[in-house]
Predict the 3D structure of the following.
Amino acid sequence: MKNEMLTVAEASKRIDAGTVMVIAGSEDLLAQLPRGAWIGGTTVYFVTDTGGAVVRDRLFCTSLSEAIGASPRHVTVEDLPLISKGYHPGGFSMIMVPAFSVAHSDFAVEGQNYPGLFDQPLLGWVTGVHLDEVGTRAPMVFDGATGQGHDEGAMLLHVALPEGASVNLDILNIFAQGDAPELAFSFPEGGFSTRRAVVNGQEVDFAQYISEKGIDTRLPLVANYAGAMVNVSIRSVDVDEGEVAFYAPVLAGVEYRQARALGNYAQAFATSAAGEGLGQYSCNCILNYLYGELEGQRTGNFTGPVTFGEIAYILLNQTMVRMDILPAA
């Protein structure tokens, strides 16, 4: 596996040579690539070998040299439950979903119930745009088989590996649930936004509650799913409209606790992300990039796209997902 920042011409040469690739970059650049065994998603934020940066003139390309075959596949919202139908035996699958799309919401809420989803490693990310363009420009996914971009559905790359090879999938989550009872919430309705929350058995105006309590919205809400800590990050708080928006949907009736304070966010993330990182695929949340002050900063040798959500079987927030391909013993 090899990670590189490439021009359109350089990436096109790799694609034409038959290289299996996962590509991230601006919509304008991705739309120029030739057809081939690749999938792509939009973002302009990256962690590169020189540090975090906004990059608009190059593409972040991961060449999967270990692959012995790959099948790009776009699935509609209606066909999301059929994700596993494209799995190659003994392989793994990459997935990209546009932020704030119907597919984003449906996968977040129902993905864990899709038949066969957990039968092989599934990893990827939620595509985005520059933060100044949120709401005015749609995040996209690109199908290398057709060259076509989509702002809805999911883009998959089903990868075949040599017999005996395996994938190691790792999730870096620096957060744990806090203990304060006044920071434990459940929600009458699920979704990407809410007006009401239940605290200590009482329903409250959630935006007003956050404002009055001075809650630090850099810290996500954390739910315990059978021992796995899953974050839901707060996107915005509008007290005038009485609405709180999230980067992933909350689920009705599930208890969320605000994450325990970290002290120095940037230092906590840098310490947790320490490691070699060479030869690994990784994607890192835009909130870690912002709150961890990653612009111009390196995270060991980990490089990759900065995303609007991460996927390791299920949708995650404020995490970093890492993947190694291990050769046959």
User: Anything to note?
Assistant: The chain has a mean pLDDT of 92. The first strand starts at residue 2 and ends at 6. Residues 181-258 form one domain. Residues 65 and 299 are 24 Å apart (CA to CA).
